[in-house]
Design a protein that fits this description.
By secondary structure, this protein is an all-alpha fold. The protein has helices at about 5-15, 20-30, 40-50, 55-65, 70-80, 85-95, 100-115, 115-125, 130-145, 150-155, 165-175, 180-190, 200-210, 215-225, 235-245, 250-260, 265-275, 280-295, 300-315, 315-330, 335-350, 350-360, 370-380, 385-395, 405-415, 420-430, 460-475, and strands at about 440-445, 445-450. Helix 11 (about 165-175) runs parallel beside helix 13 (about 200-210). This is Chlororespiratory reduction 4.
């Protein structure tokens, strides 16, 4: 006969696979067997009902328990948190006869999930016997809710830090787009040396290198990861492929890919999208067929890479065939990004009418990316009529983005319609917004330097402009003539 150790395992399994009917049947069986009062069984029942959103049934179980230990109280409070009912969760917390550090962390996490960092911090300050996980919970809370400064201050207050503390700081910077700070905190972590980085740390750092174009540091992380035992780690391998591809070294990305004994879907997607991004559409399509032969099932991101490859190769009909295969063969519901890829495929190939017709047939409204793709194609094929339509849509979707006016202005300039160019300049000025200047990132002496077009504030502007002048003269001596008709490009 099943006993008090059997039932929790089966009940937990019911919760994992959302088998609510079977869970209720087992509940009936254990009541008949006399296990209703068992706190271990009762706690598991609370968790099962809570995972299914049946918080009323969970509370009924809690109320029928003769002996409620701190684990049962924690499970019931967590049940209310899962239902986003912090009022009842806090009421039970205040009534709990015993509170251990897990229960305190649970209620603090509940407030963090709702974005109520003030209440979370208030409880955190009241918490007795805080452990390092308590601090990490608050760190992650500040990072998740976008308060990087508070995350930094709390990190500095910590007397003890573990790998999750460092990952919370590094991940918090990455989550909020502070990629320079990601690299800085990683270097500090290595210098202090108390806690070695793990694969999660290295993946975040490699992603930051990819975003900043910090190739030299990315290469160093590659060697370092292998030296500390992460050679063959699939997560680091995936991050390396992405980093090398985005930093322009696709051959290194292929070497990492070919050297991986274990490949998952992200591995295949990273290399296929990387090859497509580098214009190596044939290689991307060949790898896609290899992927299918290995039995790996593609997803929407795979097909974004495939459609991008077809766009670079001008394979319009093949791209449309892949799009239909995605729906028919793999039952993938296309998201707007995939529809955007098809619009770009048609528009770049010059089939502007087909692209507009496709936009009208989409099950959702076209976003700014799709209309911008059409506007860009209009410049190539000098279609001012469609460009005006695209700009109308973009003004509604992105009223604060003057770059759209610049694009149409360039089209008018190519057609010699100078009155329309002047009219658009006035319209762009009346918006009160300026086009964001071009920004360059260059890695020098293990640091990533950022500067903008016509940047007079940079501390090394004299050296920068001297180098740019020399490069311009060198280009002109080789026969390059800059296109000065590109208005307001910020290049």
């Amino acid at each position: 006969m099943p006993n008090c150790f059997t039932f929790p395992v089966v009940i937990k399994s019911c919760g994992k696979i959302n088998a609510s009917v079977e869970g209720e049947e087992i509940h009936c069986v254990l009541i008949k067997g006399g296990f209703r009062a068992n706190p271990f069984v009762g706690t598991t029942l609370i968790e099962m009902y809570a995972s299914g959103g049946v918080v009323g049934a969970a509370y009924k179980v809690f109320g029928e328990m003769c002996e409620r230990n701190v684990v049962a109280w924690t499970s019931m409070i967590n049940a209310y948190i899962l239902c986003r009912d912090m009022v009842l969760a806090r009421r039970l917390f205040d009534l709990a006869p015993e509170r251990d550090v897990v229960l305190w962390n649970t209620i603090v996490s509940g407030y963090i999930e709702l974005g109520d960092m003030a209440s979370a911090r208030e409880l955190f300050d009241e918490m007795p016997n805080r452990d390092v996980m308590s601090w990490n919970t608050m760190l992650n809370g500040y990072a998740k809710n976008g308060n990087v400064e508070a995350c930094e201050r709390l990190f500095e207050e910590m007397l003890e830090r573990n790998i999750f503390s460092w990952n919370a700081l590094v991940g918090g910077y990455a989550h909020n787009g502070c990629f320079f700070e990601v690299l800085g905190s990683f270097k500090r972590m290595l210098v202090e040396g108390d806690v070695p980085p793990n694969d999660a740390t290295l993946v975040t750092v490699l992603s930051a290198c990819a975003r900043l174009g910090a190739l030299d540091l990315g290469k160093w992380v590659h060697v370092y990861a292998e030296s500390i035992g992460y050679k063959g780690n699939v997560y680091i391998g995936n991050a390396l492929i992405d980093m090398y591809a985005k930093c322009g070294i696709i051959e290194n990305a292929l070497k990492v890919f070919n050297g991986m004994a274990v490949k998952d879907l992200i591995t295949w997607n990273s290399i296929i999208c990387g090859l497509a991004m580098h214009g190596r559409g044939v290689d991307a399509l060949n790898l896609f067929h290899q992927m299918k032969n290995t039995g790996e099932k593609p997803d929407g991101i795979t097909f974004i890479g495939i459609l991008c490859a077809c766009t670079h190769l001008g394979l319009v009909e093949d791209g449309l065939s892949y799009f239909q295969s995605m729906v028919d063969d793999y039952h993938i519901v296309p998201q707007i990004e995939l529809y955007g890829c098809v619009v770009d495929l048609l528009a770049r190939a010059g089939f502007l009418d087909r692209a507009v017709k496709f936009v009208k047939m989409m099950p959702m409204r076209a976003d700014a990316v799709i209309w911008a793709a059409l506007l860009g194609a209009c410049k190539i094929y000098k279609n001012s009529e469609l460009a005006e339509l695209a700009l109308e849509r973009l003004i509604v979707l992105e009223p604060k983005n003057p770059a759209n006016y610049v694009m149409l202005s360039n089209i008018y300039g190519d057609l010699g319609r100078w009155k329309d160019v002047a009219r658009l300049k006035v319209a762009m000025r009346d918006t009160g917004f300026k086009k964001v200047p071009g920004c360059s990132l260059i890695e020098v002496n293990d640091k990533v330097v950022e500067f903008y077009s016509l940047d007079e504030r940079h501390c090394e502007r004299e050296e920068i402009y001297a180098a740019l002048t020399g490069l311009t003269e060198l280009l002109r001596s080789s026969g390059y003539i800059p296109d000065l008709m590109e208005l307001g490009t910020g290049a």
